[in-house]
Design brief:
heterodimer, A: eight-stranded mixed beta sheet, about 35% helix, B: mainly alpha, DUF1501 domain-containing protein (chain A), DUF1501 (chain A), Alkaline_phosphatase_core_sf (chain A), TAT_signal (chain A)
């Protein structure tokens, strides 16, 4: 209740200001868009919202990660030819974790061992949008708005970049690791990998291949440091010796010079070395090296240590690849778990060791879950994306191949998240849907924003309409998840 | 909208019982003490049984209250010193009350009485801090005629307010209007969901003057002139957990919103006369021909004659027009999006004809291909036409590239252009067909509604987005209007959805401006669209043409006569100029090139450019026109400028394949407007064309600078070019001169030559050339249209 203000004093003060503004002929809307006004925001941030985190790492399980095959295992039924799919809830055995009575699916032992450092959410419910579609659900997850929208909705990372700016001025505030845009549905992916109406400035800095991270922050290929420095120096010299002064000082020119200077500083900074995975000790590098995702985790760790603000690391979305299992679900998941288990656990342990975990929030999530029988959610009839047989005549049908939205797992670690905590529950029999404490995307976003000290009703006026950080600004952080 | 279940409801419920239960210990224990004192004075025991009962019930309820209080403080967002004091004094009181009861039972009268007094002290302290939490610091003191008031009134800001109010200086009509817009907007945003025609909780409606003044079930909600006595202010300023607090659900009102409501009540809750009169500025629909001021020797272009009046009024002196080189660079970039070649500049500077500038503009406008290749960027943004993007993959989107390119190249009269967008051929149907995502979508985003929104925004400069979900609170547009308009585009009759919920009402069929014509409600879609197109392009639809001329003006001048360019109800900085341009446009056969000619040959256009320190100032309503606002090159202009001055950024293979071969053949070099969006263009500001986009930002940023510093697209083009230049220009002197002429349209100054030669080396090296071109293309002089 600290944000309670002295009502009378407040009324008098602000209405005086308002009246003064009116008298001066200033437009009142300016006052309203004070929602984005730095003064008020700052006051609000200090007063209303506590900040327990400075950095966010999103570990994105692209393509729909089945909860019963990962962090919420159910009864295991081994494969038999001719078996009814309906009998199968999990295709893996479950293994104990660091938390009493909490089991993970086989293959996630390393994450299981560090689960006492974070919170396991077992009740994430994804939206129903008629068809269960990866691109629309991913859009929804990352922006908290269902596509399409009349206004280009900003990505979670862009909101954070806009509200908090970079943590270290030479490291871009929003870094997106691992997604290439040359794959199927690339245009749909681009639609939410954007700062939307907030402006390109807050958009993602893409590093599609973490092992090539350095390429993005070093002088162009074939240019050594000396030439790079000289080029920059002569550039400045050229400008100061040109008659450019006659254009006076305007914001375009100033912002151009400033951003060139910033880019130069980044590319020349010691922090840029963080992008270079080859400088990592071999034995640690190998712990992460399960492929591009694993190395993405390593890059995320290194950037976090140098002061990154928001980093997304994805297993990469590509239709019918990765977590998007429409056949061979069981064997494909063995691979996927292998890719993520070691690196994620290592990331958490490494950040803990260096003390960064206290102020870094890590979130592992996916756009929805999967089930062998149910497409969408139990009571909603939605069109099936890929035909699946009810009787398993071949091992390739053994796995979670349909899209399921009614119960998904999310992991959260660090940055003020409770330790060793389990939130929500799904049913132990099909449909394995959320039966306790459902949580939706707005709640997840608000919890992240809250931990970062961003007010839940943050908004901007776009075409005279308020656009909130989550739809209508009504959702609240899930305080249960926070210490 | 789903509201996240934060925590188990029972805990929340129990916690919120705390403020209810606390009244028992407060009341009972205090009265018990009073009775105890009375008994002590009277030395009587007749009250004993009652006192004992009060103590017992008081103590039990104190324990209960403390418990619930602990639940509450953990459930909700309480923090701070006040809460701590309240919590611990409450717990202490509970302990004291228990001790009091124990002392009473053990018969130790003096101890018991002392403890009772302490308990009541405790209850008072805890109660006081609790009340501060719920009612605010000065709940009681604020109604006193003395106290901290002088303090507040001493601040200068407040003096200003009191001065204004005490001298009973009336707000001007305009201020009342603005205030009302805010009030209605606040009520609409925060209160309508429960207090309007749709839902009327507490028998209170806030959607009209009469209903607000009438109040609700419990009587009046405001007392004009007295915000402090107004129920509405009391309710919205209660703490969120108070059961009387408003709004009961969702977001609290902001401080500014509360302040505005209070100010409004203090000012007597003024409301424009006549409930029906709009409180929004609504631009006239019909065209208007303003009286042109007489021409003088210097000032004969109609634009200049009108601007001259504006300058007089704003005490602005005419400056002399820019030199030939600057003018040439401007018109080249503005009309065809390219830099002039050194030869052209030389010839133009040497030309002695008095009308050479007019001749130059004519020549540029006649370069039909170049013109189309430049302006297609603007129209692609506005009509959200793109060569790649969402929707294409599932056949949910159609491009209009060929139609658009051909229309621009032919300079299709704008009335025909609009007609073909609304009542389309196959090639132009993409605009109103919109983007269809698979699955269910919000009803305000169905493709018919997209068509209504986009036609309204792009062609009519009005915002229908609010009204496609609910009655707008930034304009008079109603949900029914938006649906009636969308329904014109629909094959079946649309059901009106309010905030994505079906209302059971079917939409009518109507043009937004009914005076333009009546749609045949039952006609097939094709016929209806033909009617709509005919209605909208009529000369009497002044709005359509004002919107267009304002957009073109903004493209050429860096700022519209009305801003934002999509909000044509806003006040123009010169109504006469806007009206004249629109009127003249219609008179001249809807000819966009003619319009561009009129503007670019005016003295007004030729004034020196104006630099702005802060981007927000350009769009501010306080903006005063003094000349073209300096702009940065668009992504496409920049890429093309580098391509022409040095070496093509894009290879032939980049050109989108959807253009017919005939067009592909006539393209001199791969222009950026005709390639798919890529990281390079995105970084430089090409929007993803998922939504309509009618202006681009001029501000540079880090991601852009990074792309320009080490991005592959740019650096590879530099490398390819450097090799050719090295072969062509063996001496650095020649090379630098040529590069300056081609890119900046001038020779290097001696000092610049020295630095440039340092970069390229005496014998130009490939690396040196790359670095010099890089430095020049990032030079503000290269990057700006000035």
């Amino acid at each position: 209740m600290i944000n309670r203000w002295n009502r009378r004093e407040f009324l008098q003060k602000t209405s005086a200001a308002t009246l003064a503004a009116l008298a001066a002929g200033a437009p009142i809307p300016g006052l309203l868009s004070g929602c984005s006004g730095a003064e008020k925001d700052k006051a609000k941030k200090q007063a209303n919202v506590r900040g327990t985190a400075d950095t966010v790492i999103l570990l994105w399980m692209a393509g729909g990660m089945a909860h019963t095959e990962t962090f919420d295992p159910k009864r295991y039924t081994p494969y038999e030819t001719g078996m009814e799919g309906n009998r199968v809830l999990s295709t893996f055995k479950s293994m104990p974790t660091a938390l009493d009575g909490i089991h993970f699916s086989d293959g996630l032992q390393s994450i299981g061992k560090v689960m006492d450092r974070g919170t396991l959410i077992r009740s994430y419910v994804a939206a129903d949008m008629g068809h269960i579609l990866h691109s629309r659900h991913q859009y929804h997850w990352h922006t908290s708005y269902e596509p399409p929208q009349t206004v280009a909705a900003p990505h979670l990372g862009s909101w954070i970049a806009k509200e908090l700016g970079p943590k270290n001025p030479v490291i871009p505030a929003f870094i997106d690791i691992g997604q290439r845009f040359t794959v199927g549905e690339a245009e749909e992916l681009k639609a939410f990998h954007t700062a939307g109406f907030l402006g390109n400035e807050f958009g993602p800095f893409f590093i599609p291949d973490p092992s090539q991270g350095l390429e993005s922050v070093r002088p162009p290929i074939g240019m050594d440091a000396r030439r790079f420095e000289r080029r920059n120096q002569l550039y400045n010299e050229l400008i100061s010796n040109s008659p450019v002064g006659e254009f006076g000082s305007d914001y375009q020119k100033e912002s151009l010079r400033r951003s060139m200077e910033q880019a130069y500083r980044l590319l020349n900074s010691p922090e840029a070395k963080a992008f270079d995975l080859s400088t990592e000790p071999k034995h640690i590098y190998e712990r992460y090296n399960t492929g591009r995702f694993g190395l993405g985790c390593l890059l995320a760790r290194r950037l976090t240590e140098q002061g990154a603000r928001f980093i997304s690391v994805t297993t990469e979305y590509e239709p019918f690849k990765g977590w998007d299992t429409h056949e061979n679900g069981h064997s494909r998941l063995e691979d996927m778990k292998c890719q993520i288990d070691g690196p994620i656990a290592q990331l958490i342990l490494d950040l803990e060791k260096t003390g960064h975990l206290d102020r870094t929030m890590i979130i592992l999530a996916s756009e929805f879950s999967r089930d062998m029988m149910v497409e969408g959610r139990p009571d909603a009839k939605v069109q099936e994306q890929v035909k699946q047989p009810d009787i398993l005549t071949d091992p390739k049908f053994y796995g979670m191949h349909r899209h399921f939205t009614d119960g998904c797992s999310v992991l959260m670690f660090g940055g003020g998240i409770k330790k060793g905590f389990v939130y929500g529950k799904t049913a132990d029999e099909r449909p394995c849907k959320t039966i306790e404490k459902p949580i939706h995307i707005e709640g997840i976003h608000q919890t992240i924003y809250h931990a970062l000290g961003i007010a839940s009703d943050t908004h901007y006026e776009v075409e005279k309409r308020p656009f909130y950080i989550t739809p209508d600004g009504v959702a609240k952080p899930v305080m249960d998840l926070l210490v | 909208m789903t509201i996240v279940a934060e925590s188990f409801w029972l805990w929340q419920f129990l916690g919120r019982l705390h403020p209810l239960i606390v009244h028992f210990p407060v009341g009972l224990l205090c009265v018990a003490l009073v009775l105890e004192v009375i008994s002590w004075f009277r030395k009587s025991t007749e009250l004993r049984a009652g006192i004992n009962a009060m103590l017992w019930i008081g103590t039990i309820s104190a324990i209960l209250a403390a418990g619930l209080g602990l639940v509450l403080v953990n459930q909700e967002d309480y923090a701070g010193k006040g809460v701590l004091v309240h919590q611990w004094s409450g717990l202490a009181t509970m302990v004291l009350a228990i001790l009091t009861v124990i002392a009473l039972r053990s018969g130790r009268v003096n101890l018991y009485r002392s403890l009772l007094i302490l308990t009541v002290v405790g209850v008072s302290v805890a109660g006081h801090y609790g009340a501060l939490l719920t009612h605010g610091e000065d709940y009681i003191s604020s109604v006193l005629p003395f106290g901290d008031q002088p303090n507040v009134a001493n601040s200068p800001a407040n003096n200003a307010m009191f001065a204004s109010l005490n001298t009973s200086k009336q707000l001007t009509a305009k201020q009342v209007q603005e205030l009302n817009l805010e009030i209605r907007s606040i009520l609409a945003h925060n209160c309508y969901s429960c207090h309007s025609a749709t839902k009327t909780k507490g028998e209170l409606r806030l959607d009209s003057k009469a209903l607000i003044m009438k109040g609700g079930k419990h009587g009046a909600i405001l007392k004009a002139g007295h915000p402090e006595d107004s129920e509405i202010i009391r309710r919205i300023t209660l703490p969120a957990d108070d059961k009387e607090a408003m709004p009961t659900k969702g977001k609290r009102l902001t401080e500014n919103e509360v302040a505005l409501l209070s100010l409004w009540i203090k000012a007597g809750a003024p409301w424009p006369s006549g409930a029906e009169k709009s409180i929004y500025r609504v631009a006239a629909l019909e065209p208007r021909l303003p009286i042109l001021p007489a021409a003088t020797v210097d000032i004969n272009n109609p634009i200049d004659r009108l601007v001259n009046v504006y300058f007089h009024k704003n005490k602005i002196e005419w400056k002399s027009v820019v030199d030939d080189r600057t003018y040439m660079r401007r018109v080249y970039l503005d009309i065809i999006g390219l830099l002039p070649t050194p030869a052209k500049i030389q010839a133009f500077e040497a030309d002695t004809r008095p009308d050479k500038r007019e001749a130059l503009v004519k020549e540029l406008l006649s370069r039909n291909g170049d013109y189309a290749q430049h302006w297609i960027t603007f129209w692609n943004d506005a009509l959200r036409n793109d060569y790649s993007g969402t929707g294409y993959i599932t056949g949910g989107r159609f491009d209009i590239t060929q139609w658009l390119y051909a229309s621009l190249k032919k300079n299709k009269p704008y009335n025909w252009f609009v007609r073909e967008l609304i009542s389309p051929t196959k090639e132009s149907s993409g605009f109103i067909k919109g983007i269809k995502w698979r699955g269910t979508i919000n009803s305000s985003q169905r493709t018919e509604m997209q068509a209504a929104q986009n036609v309204a925004q792009v062609l009519l400069g009005l915002n229908l987005k609010c009204a496609s979900c609910h009655d707008s609170f930034i304009s008079d547009w109603k949900l029914a209007d938006a649906y009636a308009f969308a329904n014109v585009f629909a094959d079946t009759t649309l059901e009106i959805n309010r905030c994505d919920k079906p209302t059971g009402k079917m939409a009518g069929r109507q043009v937004l401006f009914k005076e333009l014509g009546q749609i045949s409600v039952d006609a097939p879609t094709e016929k209806r669209l033909r009617e709509l197109a005919d209605f909208l392009v009529q000369p009497k639809d002044g709005r359509l043409y004002r919107t267009l001329v304002n957009r073109i003006w903004a493209q050429l001048m860096g700022r519209g006569i009305v801003e934002p360019v999509d909000a044509m109800d806003n006040e123009p900085w010169s109504q006469d100029l806007l009206d004249w341009l629109a009127y003249d446009f219609v008179q001249n056969g809807y000819d966009i090139k003619k319009l561009i000619y009129t503007i670019t040959t005016s003295k007004t256009y030729q004034l020196p450019s104006v630099g702005v320190k802060d981007a927000d100032l350009v769009m501010a309503p306080t903006y005063v026109f003094e000349g073209m606002v300096r702009r940065r090159l668009t992504a496409e202009q920049f890429a093309d400028a580098v391509s022409l001055a040095f070496n093509p950024i894009y290879q032939d293979t980049s050109i989108v394949k959807m253009l017919p071969k005939t067009i592909q053949k006539e393209i001199a070099f791969p222009r950026a407007s005709l390639v798919k969006n890529d990281p390079f263009l995105t970084a430089l500001g090409r929007p993803n064309r998922e939504t309509v986009s009618t202006s681009r930002t001029s501000q540079a940023n880090l991601l852009q600078a990074l792309e320009l510093t080490n991005g592959t697209t740019f650096n590879e083009a530099l490398k390819r070019g450097a090799e050719q230049w090295k072969a062509k220009y063996p001496s650095s002197d020649l090379l630098v001169k040529e590069l300056y002429r081609k890119s900046l349209g001038r020779d290097p100054k001696p000092k610049e030559m020295i630095v440039a030669q340092k970069i390229v080396g005496v014998q130009p090296s490939v690396e040196g050339i790359e670095d010099l071109v890089w430095a020049i293309s990032l030079h503000p002089e290269f990057q700006l249209i000035y």
